[in-house]
Amino acid sequence: MTTTPQISEMEQEQLIEKLEIFKIHGRDKRGRKILRIIGKFFPARFLSLDVLNKYLEEKIFPRLGRKPFAVLYVHTGVQRSENFPGISALRAIYDAIPVNVRDNLQEVYFLHPGLQSRLFLATCGRFLFSGGLYGKLRYISRVDYLWEHVRRNEIEMPEFVYDHDDDLEYRPMMDYGQESDHARVYAGATAVDSSVSSFSMRCIS
């Protein structure tokens, strides 16, 4: 995550809004609000930590209220060089979350985790995140499995998430890091522009 953003603070906030990286909508099967986070849309090269934390503090956390909630993190299409903020940034973001918000976070549904993410969290997750966050992780390898935990008709997903699911059905070794999906699905993608243009929303009823 950049320490010297190429765009102004206001432009960074507008970018977060435009990309809908963070969106509160829908509920899980236990009736808890869901904070949906689309990892692929996270413009790590253009955002500063200060702007991101300010946005979360002002626009997201107040809307969660004081009741238990869940996070749906969509990891589909995340590339380390484009939209991964880095380990230190993740820790800084987590540490900036108010204690009451952390306490109300009951579950993290991690969609399309991939082998590298699983290994990283298995080895570093307990040390990186305090407050028992690691124990709240629930890995979800397919969208169909997500509906076992989340109310299906209340959650919107980008089209590329379903496309990735289709790829996994025909190329199951992608689940284990033995085959890359980058060449076919995300060829030529850029950090921000391609993410916006490919955000074709589909809500399954």
From TrEMBL:
Signal sequence residues: none
InterPro entries referenced in this protein's UniProt entry, alphabetically: CRAL-TRIO_dom (IPR001251), CRAL-TRIO_dom_sf (IPR036865)
Domain CRAL-TRIO: 15-164
Protein name in the entry: CRAL-TRIO domain-containing protein
Organism: Brassica campestris (Field mustard)
